[in-house]
Design goal:
Radius of gyration: 16 Å
Strand order of the largest sheet: 1-4-3-2
Number of helices: 5
Largest sheet: 4 strands, antiparallel
Number of strands: 4
Order of helices and strands: HHEHHEEEH
Distance between the termini: 53 Å
Helix content: 40-55%
């Protein structure tokens, strides 16, 4: 019955399903080992104080996600600038998918961090 109600709502335009690529127009896969680097750099660029509480929330949130389904965990860093992002595991890979949305003047720098994290294995100890 619920399935039929959802289909009717979609047909009537009463329910709009936003895809992750609509909501988060930027993104890339990254090496799983580079996740902490990405979040530290994104927080720095946003003027956000990244803490172990954020790290724990994201680690817990990304469990049971899968970019293929898609099931993502959504989070935001809000400082001087804002970045909204979604993260998901990639099945059978040592990679994660990160999608994000930010104000236009910041998007290039946030994307540059992702580009580095997908091209190199970064040791950020």
């Amino acid at each position: 019955i619920l399935h039929r109600i959802v289909l009717q709502a979609l047909a009537l335009g009463a329910l709009h399903v936003t895809s992750f690529t609509e909501k988060y127009p930027n993104g890339s896969w990254i090496w799983r080992s580079n996740l902490n680097f990405v979040f530290q750099e994104w927080a720095r660029l946003a003027g956000y104080q990244f803490s172990s509480l954020d790290q724990d929330a994201i680690e817990l949130g990304k469990n049971n996600t899968d970019s293929e389904i898609p099931i993502y965990f959504e989070y935001s860093f809000i400082g001087e600038k804002r970045i909204d992002f979604a993260i998901a595991n990639e099945s059978g890979c040592d990679t994660l998918m990160l999608l994000f949305s930010s104000n236009l003047d910041s998007s290039n720098m946030f994307q540059y961090v992702l580009d580095l994290a997908s091209m190199y294995r970064i040791n950020n100890e």
